[in-house]
Amino acid sequence: MALGAAAATRFERSLVTPAGMDVIGRGPDERPGARDRVSPGITADDRTRFDSLTWLG
């Protein structure tokens, strides 16, 4: 997966969802190591949230 094939979206708490971050990839392929490839693009403000993400396979 190229870094351009992923997008990270941060969102605040709402009435129906907790605050969080979604990392979305394009296409059906598995992405081993995606966390390491997306990580350099995360700002220092989001680092703690990013490091605590649960990655689904």
Report on this model:
- With 57 residues, the protein is of the alpha+beta class.
- It has one domain (3-51).
- 18% of the residues lie in helices and 21% in strands.
- The chain has two helices and two strands; from the N terminus they run E-E-H-H.
- The protein has helices at 34-38, 47-51; strands at 6-11, 20-25.
- A two-stranded antiparallel sheet has the order 1-2.
- Strand 1 (6-11) and strand 2 form a beta hairpin.
- The longest helix is centred in the middle third of the chain and has 5 residues, at 34-38.
- The two termini are 15 Å apart.
- Residues 27-45 have a biased composition (Basic and acidic residues).
- Residues 20-45 are annotated as: Disordered.
List keywords for this structure.
57 residues, alpha+beta, two-stranded antiparallel ribbon, 2 helices, 18% helix, globular
What general outline do the C-alpha atoms trace? globular
How is the main sheet built? 2 strands, antiparallel
- What Rg is obtained from the alpha carbons, in whole angstroms? 12 Å
**What is the total tally of β strands?**
2
Order of helices and strands: EEHH
Strand order of the largest sheet: 1-2
Estimated helix fraction? 10-25%
Label the structural class.
alpha+beta
How much is the average pLDDT? 75
Uncertain runs: none
N- and C-termini, Cα separation: 15 Å
Total helix count? 2
Number of domains: 1
Strand-residue proportion = 15-25%
Region (Disordered): 20-45
Biased composition (Basic and acidic residues): 27-45
